[in-house]
Structures are given as C-alpha cells and as structure tokens.
Specification:
This protein is mostly helical. It contains 6 helices and no strands.
Length: about 120
C-alpha cells in the first residue's frame, strides 16, 4: 500500500513519470494476484525503505457519525425544549431534528418524506 501511495504522490510532481510508475506497480500487483501470491502482491525489492501506511478511515468515520448524531441530538433537544415553550407537541418539535438528519446524512434524502411523516403518524 505504501509503494502505491508513493507512486500516486508522484502524479502531482510529474504526471508522466508518476503514471508510468503507478502503472508498473499495478501490473506487478495484477501479476502477483494472478500467480496466487495474495500475501505479497509486490516483490520484496519494491517494498524496501517503506513505512506501513496507517489506515485511519474507521476512526474518521466513527468520529463523523458521532459528531453527526450529536448535532442531530442537540437540534432535537433544542426543538423539543423550544416546542414546550411555545406549546408545540412532541412530534412537531422533532421536525428540526429530522431535517438536520437529512442534511447531515445525504442518503436519507430519498427517504426524507417518509421519515417526516413517521414522526407525525398516530
């Protein structure tokens, strides 16, 4: 992974040589995969002087979801509190939280109307 990332970074400095190096490494990976060398897709000489790449995707995604849920919870709590101040019932005061959820999680946009009507149902 580190060798491929190093070759990918070369694309910014020199696109032709970077693309050539990246293509060469990808061909070596394909040959290793075709030869059933799944534990080591690149030859050992390609991996000299490289540090392993740390994958922090799971950490960032977890933090993103936690922050999004905190925002939705804060909007829901604020809507409920403000709704009590003006005399709105609980389903109506949660509509801002549903809107915040749709804005924070774009995949909910297709189910947004169903989500809103589920709050207002009996």
């Amino acid at each position: 992974m580190a060798a491929l990332r190093r070759a990918e970074l070369q694309l910014d400095a020199d696109t032709v040589d970077g693309a050539r190096e990246l293509s060469r490494l990808l061909i070596l990976v394909a040959e290793g995969y075709a030869s059933a060398r799944l534990g080591s897709l690149l030859p050992e000489d390609e991996l000299n002087d490289l540090e392993p790449v740390r994958d922090r995707t799971a950490l960032w995604e977890t933090l993103h979801v936690m922050a999004a849920l905190a925002v939705i919870g804060a909007v829901g709590w604020t809507g409920t509190w403000y709704g009590q101040q003006i005399g709105a019932e609980a389903p109506w005061s949660l509509i801002p939280a549903a809107i915040a959820a749709v804005l924070v999680f774009p995949r909910l946009r297709t189910a947004g109307p169903d989500l809103l009507t589920s709050y207002l149902g009996p």
